[in-house]
């Protein structure tokens, strides 16, 4: 099949790429060798915080800028590796002072603020486990995730605490300490009952001393993700993940020591941790942190003024920039930019090409998910791009497309899953064993076990692999919704709707959206005695927004006299979606009569 290709010429690249020859790079790679690029703890073992900051703070990078924060007014505040290491040490000391033990969970509910970075690294240094929450979550998603992970400490702001945590605090008996980053003194924080003022605690804290002697398999990070049914899943990641953060930062993001790197991901999600914090710091580069939300002019100003060289962003953001108009870029000097990468949702070929027009650089799509902990499939600076393709597996990663049976399960023969022929659609799968692979879903052994079959980890995504080894995303294998890069479990939204007195049944699907990829749409069957009306529609949307937060709540809501269900009572979201989009309804043999 003839597809457009963006040819790469080594001689035209501004910097010699880390991965010059893809096939050679893959053949030469092994994880043991990759680990040698890291320092390891002086007494043995590995700790992410040591690799990310402490070893640099003790070496030639001590005075190099680690993080550069861009405030609302455009002014900047930088932290060197030595300063960041000290602040992380103080945070670790605060945890020790509070009696937090190794392995206990420290949560954050914060935007991109300097305190977040010290908290992540300090938590890891102390050997505790860090778990970020998305600040646009409402009280209910916060409560569920804190409860599942038995959160002991929460770091947040006064406003977020009042709005999202105070209403559910009584339901979290295991939460011992809430640390407010914007308390301006002990008395002030005392005014917010049940919280402590982090500013005061940090000011009183001593330096920490040696990093906790964690081993490669010790739990370091807990990242929540959503499935089609059930509660959110807490993916467990270990300290050895840093090996993959390093290797992928090197090959997929092409990080070089002199880079100024900007990852625009929200710190509440896995990308914000793996590539907003760990990978750039492990590479000793300067990472830009924008404290504000997205705005086209602001972003171009940051790219220009901060002389960003490597930019890692997302399709929704790129589509918004594209929509704002290429002419907006005129007047900004983006000459420092040499590599643009994107992740999180399908990247349309038009956006890849728009990059060429707007920045003189194509956008490099890459693929991964919460469970994989790091980039698995990617386009590289020195490899031709096939716009619309996610690229090829990272060195050290074996990816495959598995044939599926009629029920959608992988076909397994003699214990080994059967691979699809080139260009055929199947389930995207990875050979287990890479360092950042999740080690479990917290407290859900069975759910974890089900992710593996015939020697592979099953990603839940559908994909194709062409004859040259490029992977193409086809869609999700389940009903999970991706909106503005955020994974939303329909069940979570349906459960919330069912709490409303007027709702008998609810079904939630994703509807294609030009900018956000998908938006959440709910269908509601009302209880007798309740009438469908615009007022009730608004009330239901408001009800879910209040509990779930704007990032998760449905944007659209329709009333339906009867939702399509199987005879066993399962709502057929797929059928609703097909009807909504005017697509073929497929197999409806299990449909309950009259639906
Ligand atoms: P999350 O675990 O929230 O990071 O979401 C992971 C999911 O996002 C994947 O399983 C895919 O469904 C989707 N995704 C991530 N990257 C891409 C990409 N480059 N192209 C298409 N879908 C993607």
From TrEMBL:
PROSITE patterns: AMP_BINDING. Residues 492-570 form the AMP-binding enzyme C-terminal domain. One of its GO terms (biological process) is acetyl-CoA biosynthetic process. Its EC number is 6.2.1.1. GO terms for cellular component: cytosol. GO terms for molecular function: acetate-CoA ligase activity; ATP binding. InterPro entries: AMP-bd_C, AMP-bd_C_sf, AMP-binding_CS, AMP-dep_synth/lig_dom, ANL_N_sf. The keyword ATP-binding applies. It is an enzyme of class 6 (ligase). It comes from the Bacteria. Residues 60-442 form the AMP-dependent synthetase/ligase domain. Keywords: Acetylation, ATP-binding, Ligase, Nucleotide-binding. Pfam families: AMP-binding, AMP-binding_C. The keyword Ligase applies. NCBIfam families: PRK04319.1 (NF003313). This is acetate--CoA ligase. The lineage of its organism: Bacteria, Bacillati, Actinomycetota, Actinomycetes, Micrococcales.
């Amino acid at each position: 099949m003839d597809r457009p290709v963006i040819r790469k010429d080594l001689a035209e690249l501004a910097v010699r790429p880390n991965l010059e020859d893809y096939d050679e790079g893959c053949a030469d790679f092994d994880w043991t060798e990759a680990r040698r690029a890291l320092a390891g703890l002086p007494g043995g073992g590995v700790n992410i915080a040591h690799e990310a900051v402490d070893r640099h703070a003790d070496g030639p990078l001590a005075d190099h800028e680690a993080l550069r924060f861009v405030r609302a007014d455009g002014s900047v505040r930088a932290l060197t590796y030595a300063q960041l290491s000290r602040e992380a040490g103080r945070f670790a000391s605060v945890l020790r002072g509070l009696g937090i033990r190794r392995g206990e969970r420290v949560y954050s509910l914060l935007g991109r603020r300097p305190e977040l970075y010290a908290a992540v690294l300090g938590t890891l240094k102390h050997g505790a486990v860090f778990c970020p929450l998305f600040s646009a979550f409402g009280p209910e998603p916060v409560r569920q995730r804190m409860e599942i992970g038995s959160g002991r400490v929460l770091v947040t702001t006064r406003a977020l605490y009042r709005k999202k945590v105070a209403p559910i605090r009584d339901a979290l008996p295991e939460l011992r300490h809430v640390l407010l980053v914007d308390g301006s003194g002990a008395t002030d924080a005392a005014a917010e009952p049940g919280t402590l003022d982090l500013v005061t605690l940090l000011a009183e804290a001593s330096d920490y001393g040696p990093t906790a002697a964690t081993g490669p398999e010790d739990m370091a990070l807990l990242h929540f993700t959503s499935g089609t049914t059930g509660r959110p899943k807490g993916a467990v990641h270990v300290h050895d993940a840093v090996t993959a953060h390093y290797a992928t930062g090197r090959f997929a993001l092409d990080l070089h020591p002199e880079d100024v790197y900007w990852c625009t991901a929200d710190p509440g999600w896995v990308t914000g941790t793996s590539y907003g914090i760990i990978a750039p710091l492990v590479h000793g580069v300067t990472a830009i942190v924008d404290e504000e939300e997205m705005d086209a002019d602001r972003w171009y100003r940051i790219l220009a003024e901060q002389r960003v060289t490597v930019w890692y962003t997302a399709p929704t953001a790129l589509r918004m920039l594209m929509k704002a108009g290429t002419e907006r870029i005129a007047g900004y000097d983006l000459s420092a930019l040499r590599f643009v990468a994107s992740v999180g949702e399908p990247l349309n070929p038009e956006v890849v090409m728009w990059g060429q027009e707007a920045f003189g650089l194509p956008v490099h799509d890459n693929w991964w998910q919460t469970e994989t902990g790091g980039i698995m499939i990617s386009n590289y600076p020195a490899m031709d791009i096939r716009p619309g393709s996610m690229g090829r597996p990272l060195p050290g990663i074996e990816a495959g497309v598995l044939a599926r049976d009629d029920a959608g399960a992988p076909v397994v023969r003699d214990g080994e899953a059967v691979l699809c022929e080139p260009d055929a659609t199947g389930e995207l799968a990875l050979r287990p064993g890479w360092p950042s692979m999740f080690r479990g879903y917290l407290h859900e052994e069975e759910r974890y076990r089900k992710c593996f079959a015939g020697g592979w980890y099953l990603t839940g995504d559908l994909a194709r692999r062409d004859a040259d080894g490029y992977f193409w995303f086809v869609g999700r294998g389940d009903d999970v919704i991706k909106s503005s890069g955020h994974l939303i479990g329909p069940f979570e939204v349906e459960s919330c709707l069912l709490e409303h007195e007027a709702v008998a049944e609810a079904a939630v699907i994703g509807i294609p959206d030009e900018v956000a990829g998908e938006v959440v749409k709910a269908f509601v069957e009302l209880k007798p005695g309740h009438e469908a009306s615009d007022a009730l529609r608004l009330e239901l949307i408001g009800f879910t927004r209040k509990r779930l937060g704007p990032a998760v709540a449905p944007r659209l809501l329709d009333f339906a006299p009867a939702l399509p269900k199987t005879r066993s009572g399962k709502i057929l979201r797929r059928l609703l979606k097909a009807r909504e989009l005017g697509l073929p309804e497929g197999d409806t043999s299990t449909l309950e009569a009259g639906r």
